[in-house]
Design brief:
alpha+beta, 2 domains, 6 helices
């Protein structure tokens, strides 16, 4: 009849085994190459469609959003708000940004933070804390800062801290919704006192 598996394996010599390995590698490489080619073509198609949409919008008079340039200014170079100690002595709540100058996300967040500081200057103090500054080590440790940027609403009057989710930090509108909600609740608390 036929050879059993043990006998078949015993008859495979090193040359045949090496050839099988090479064939397997070539097939795997071909599959990987095909997958990468398909992904490349899909990206190329998406880019073409995006360009086509921009052209159509321009022809029909719709404004096309231009991609924003990535800011290059370090967070510490922005002159926004007051120092942390002064903000914590105030009865006014503060939006406190914990940042690191080398953090790309912090750099991209700064124009948003600046716009918020102008929009909410009557309702909130604004403060920035460089987590690498040794004078703020105890504050950073107490609050438990582990990622950057981290933004808290800190209300010394009511001894309250609210962490804003990083999911809300991508644009002014999302942060504004959270700040508006906080301001409404705080006004209700002030009315009850």
């Amino acid at each position: 009849m036929g050879l059993n598996l043990k006998e078949k394996w015993g008859k495979v010599n090193k040359k045949n085994l090496a050839m099988l390995v090479v064939i397997f590698i070539l097939i795997a490489g071909g599959i990987i190459g095909a997958i990468e080619y398909i992904q490349y073509k899909n990206l190329e198609k998406e880019a073409y469609q995006a360009q086509e949409e921009r052209i159509i919008k321009e022809i029909f008079g719709e404004k096309v959003k231009q991609p924003q340039e990535t800011p290059t200014k370090k967070p510490s170079e922005y002159k926004i708000g007051i120092n942390y100690e002064k903000a914590m002595k105030s009865k006014k709540p503060a939006l406190v940004l914990f940042y690191a100058d080398w953090c790309g996300y912090c750099i991209r967040f700064m124009p948003i933070y600046q716009e918020l500081s102008e929009k909410y200057k009557k309702e909130l103090n604004f403060s920035k804390v460089n987590v690498e500054d040794k004078k703020y080590k105890s504050v950073v440790d107490e609050i438990g800062i582990t990622g950057f940027p981290t933004v808290y609403i800190i209300d010394p009057k009511y001894d309250n801290r609210i962490l804003l989710s990083n999911a809300h930090l991508s644009n002014v509108e999302d942060v504004s919704k959270e700040l508006d909600r906080f301001i409404r609740i705080r006004k209700l608390l002030d009315e009850k006192k």
